[in-house]
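To: structure desk
From: M.T.
Subject: fold request, one chain
Message: Could you run this one when you get a chance? Sequence is below, nothing fancy, just the single chain.
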Amino acid sequence: MSDIYYEIILDHYRYPRNKGQIENADIKVRDSNPLCGDEIEYTIKLDANKNTIIDIKFEGKGCAISQASASILSEIVKGKTIDEIKQMNKDNLLKELGNPKLGPTRIKCALLPLKTLKLGIYSFIGQHFTEES
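Reply: Done. Structure tokens follow.
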């Protein structure tokens, strides 16, 4: 793995951005990876039109990769519309993580935050979510 990958992961793991909870959140969603015990919960505040994320916080526990990924994702999606988030895919997040070469178990850790966020968005708008969405 590259040094930049380790630096990004360790920085966000040690100093997570947007850690905490939002009172009166429009969206509250939690998911976990039962294979390794990672847990992520996002609370999200939308604009008046319920179309754009104006604030996002996360709580969680688990490995450095899952928690750093949750922190990074929270920075990326602030100010984005629901439609923009629906278009995000795993490659977008992995690029932000420094394009790590991860095995099947670790890739699930890295992508849990994106899966959780999309689950919350799709539940909020009343559409069915699949991991391919």
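Reply (cont.): Residues 82 and 125 are 9 Å apart (CA to CA). Let me know if you need anything else for the meeting.
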